[in-house]
Design a protein that fits this description.
With 154 residues, the protein is mainly alpha-helical. Helix content is 66%, strand content 4%. The chain is built from five helices and two strands, in the order αββαααα. The chain has a two-stranded antiparallel ribbon with strand order 1-2. β1 and β2 form a beta hairpin. It starts with a helix and ends in a 7-residue tail after the last helix.
Amino acid sequence: MLIRRVSILAVAMIGFGSTIALAKPTLISHQVIAQTPTGVTRPNLAKSGGWLKDLNLTSQQLQQIKQIRNQSKQQIAQKSQEIRQGEQELDDLIAGTATKEQVRGKYNQIKLVKQQLSDTQFENTLAIREILNPEQRQKFAERMYKKNPPAQHN
């Protein structure tokens, strides 16, 4: 149950407007999907409508959330750029005459940067979680669960 809630909160971090670049699963693609994945909305913290209103956040909570986002905004943008550049280089290596070890090295480098980006987003999610009271956390988790239900196992 705790893992599901943490997963939901991690997905929610994207909803709080973190800038992220997620690469397509295929390594050979030159295209990168930037910002947020399809189906995930990015609420405007300045507006009082939407699901943030459902959480009944105080103006202090909204300000704290903005501060958390702003503190990591540059780092997230930098990591996203590193991923885009690394994947372009990987595409070039795959298409060129690079050795298998060079291609694998570039792939591992990209994988590390993606993990660092994910870790930053998770830390933001934890920081935002600390701002919410238990009732807000519950509403937040319920809202995220409705939008992104976990896969059912047979």
